[in-house]
């Protein structure tokens, strides 16, 4: 207690320093301020997202109209798009880099990097991250890894093209595919740096959440956003190093003649010396990260959705403890289900049984979360702000995509849909689209916090939302049929199989929806950039939220609060709480009680 | 098509610019409240749109089934396949049931509880009973699915040696398939990529007597009704032998031998007579005919008429021609199969011919 008070005395004293004079470089480039770093993550993430999404446009065009020539191929793909015909090798490169960019650079760094950095200190009542310097290093490593990944696009033989899962031997042997030369080397370097960045970030998030909560902010009073970021950071810390080891061994196999993953290979007319390695080992190592990775992507979105949904429903999140428990359960289970990516990899079928069991268990906490979100809406007073719409759509796509997971996770059913378009539809809905919705919800909701009080245009937001949400279903719902028809993913064209000729229509429909969906993102980009400079100024707490970030100064200052850090007296979800007589809200005329308001005489203290 | 796309993009862009303009104008004349925060009017409009979106999801589902039901796979051509199809059907009914209800509730709540100035939200923080119910229901349902799934899986994956299955090796390489039969002794000779030489493309050990009567072919023939145990090898990178019509798939991994066993129950000829396939093939040929007409008009070769055949395709990214790595599979009567196999030369014969 006294130690706590001392810390606060020190922190309060901190404000007397006045603000350090900042140059352009320390403020905008090598900033150690979490708010600026968060913006850096967001803008880098959005930039990478634009590239990743444009890539998907190219291969969607190819899939829909394989016989037609498109001049844009020649313009963007150069020698791989000669005469407007897409080269099969660049098709594989596009799907590989699209996957890599979207999973790692957009939905991991862009989502978790942005919002963990912005919200952890602001919502727990801290002046900054535990280590501002490490935080800065983390961002710049991320920037470097993005830069290297983009450089790999310009390599002579082409970028990595063995799928984002980079299974050896394909990724290990340049003889097997041109992209496994310098392109793959750069891919591995980029990801190794990315892992370093992610680990530094995760450590920082964990330490900050554990040590730097303001007085009264017990773990059970944390907003669900912070819980989600905290748990995400822990999953990352456990699983990313395993990918690092896999990448390292792959580098050794590629460059130093070891045989971790290679054995008995005859390629390009000669037998390679490699003996005794196993590609299945790589699959285990890869998916030991790869599966938790999808939860690293979705958990922050879940946290953001819980928070925004409660605020805009003007109701507490339903079942706060169950929400935290299910986050923990998902996090734990996420580390023991990786084998469901490998049912038919040649591993022992008994392992398949075990992984089916653990995989289907994950459906339970996921179901609990979905039901709790729906109940949060029940008898609410829904404020249909743009962020809220993204949250509702998130629950919708999460349910749709999650349900097909019950099919994929069943080893017996997986036999026939493994690696078909069914899985592509499944993971795009449940992980890609849902996490992107979480990201967008966060951007619309916390935009005023990021850009010193400016707000995004609401009506442009509505247009963006409706076209995107219709488009997303329009792309990915029909895709299930393509998968159930038995069409493998990563096929440059299915015209070699007349049997699949009747799938041409579906491909055209999906691509048209994709074109519209991608086009409407221009509206978002315009809105984002325009609002950054000319957006209307918001009130200090535009959404009438209870969490601490809205008590911080609108103008960004180092240390977040001009005065002392607010203390916390209640959980984050006192929305529409009535007084003891149930005549009015606890604070008359105001349907929310910020966390820094002490317990009032006219309210009951509830145990949440 | 490019022109169409370009026009589409331009139109779309035009529409969005026009919309933006209109919206900015509208935004200027907002009377009360902050213009970027949802007003009661917005809540109302968006609430109705949520209901509309629910309709969109349902219509999309119905239209998709109506248009594309005939693209789905035909009934299984293998014995275990019908178990998989059963399990699939049960799982599908379950997830559609849950999906339809939860989406309805979600969007209905979004509509009915849209806010206005008068409404007051209910402070409703938790209810242990309710949460217990919707934890335990998924537990029970999933337990059922898991048990059914695991029994099916174990049945499929465990091969009983007493069944005396036909042993066939499926050999994958960039970018084609080969098959090797064990010959009269139904035993495959040992093989390793280090023994690949000349005509011995699968690296069968010439010193192994079991290998002498092996037969290597580029078209897989299987007798109907007999269990076949497929042993898989790959010589270069990962491949995956995917036989969708038999509900069968297994990766081919360089350095190890993987396996998958199934019993074909429907001959190629019977499958061609299957009503569903007849209709599907007719549909495909209609599409191909249209395409052919376009091609002929351009002075190119027309497409061949399609006839149904089983196939194995590669389903693990394996390189540039991954999309065209296929082999025909023919399921036929025991006699036809034997007659066909008798015509194929044994490896021993081929090797001795080479050395002569």
Automatic annotation (TrEMBL), chain A:
GO biological process: aerobic respiration; electron transport coupled proton transport; respiratory electron transport chain
Signal sequence extent: none
SUPFAM superfamilies xrefs: Cytochrome c oxidase subunit I-like
Matches recorded under InterPro entries: Cyt_c_oxase-like_su1_dom (IPR023616), Cyt_c_oxase-like_su1_sf (IPR036927), Cyt_C_Oxase_1 (IPR000883), Cyt_c_Oxase_su1_BS (IPR023615)
UniProt KW keywords: Electron transport, Heme, Iron, Membrane, Metal-binding, Respiratory chain, Transmembrane, Transmembrane helix, Transport
Gene3D superfamilies listed in its UniProt record: Cytochrome c oxidase-like, subunit I domain
Keyword Hydrolase attributed: no
A matching Pfam family: COX1
GO molecular function term, any single one: cytochrome-c oxidase activity
Location of the protein in the cell: Membrane
Residue stretches spanning the membrane: 41-59, 90-120, 132-155, 186-212, 224-252, 285-306, 318-338, 350-374, 386-409, 421-447, 459-486, 506-529
Predominant location: membrane
GO-annotated cellular components: membrane
Cytochrome oxidase subunit I profile domain ranges (all copies): 24-566
Membrane topology of the entry: Multi-pass membrane protein
Family: Belongs to the heme-copper respiratory oxidase family.
Name of the protein this chain belongs to: Cbb3-type cytochrome c oxidase subunit I
Species the sequence originates in: Aequorivita vitellina
UniProtKB/TrEMBL annotation, chain B:
Protein topology in the membrane: Multi-pass membrane protein
GO biological process: ATP synthesis coupled electron transport
Pfam families, per the entry: COX2, COX2_TM
InterPro entries in UniProt: CcO_II, CcO_II-like_C, Cupredoxin, Cyt_c_oxidase_su2_TM_dom, Cyt_c_oxidase_su2_TM_sf
Keywords assigned by UniProt, alphabetized: Copper, Electron transport, Membrane, Metal-binding, Respiratory chain, Translocase, Transmembrane, Transmembrane helix, Transport
Source domain of life: Bacteria
Molecular functions (GO terms): copper ion binding; cytochrome-c oxidase activity
Parts of the chain that traverse the membrane: 6-27, 48-69, 89-111, 132-151
EC number: 7.1.1.9
Domain named Cytochrome oxidase subunit II copper A binding: residues: 163-343
Annotated ranges, domain Cytochrome oxidase subunit II transmembrane region profile: 65-160
Localization, UniProt: Cell membrane; Membrane
Gene Ontology CC: plasma membrane
Task of the protein: Subunits I and II form the functional core of the enzyme complex. Electrons originating in cytochrome c are transferred via heme a and Cu(A) to the binuclear center formed by heme a3 and Cu(B).
Family label: Belongs to the cytochrome c oxidase subunit 2 family.
Entry protein name: Cytochrome c oxidase subunit 2
Species name: Aequorivita vitellina
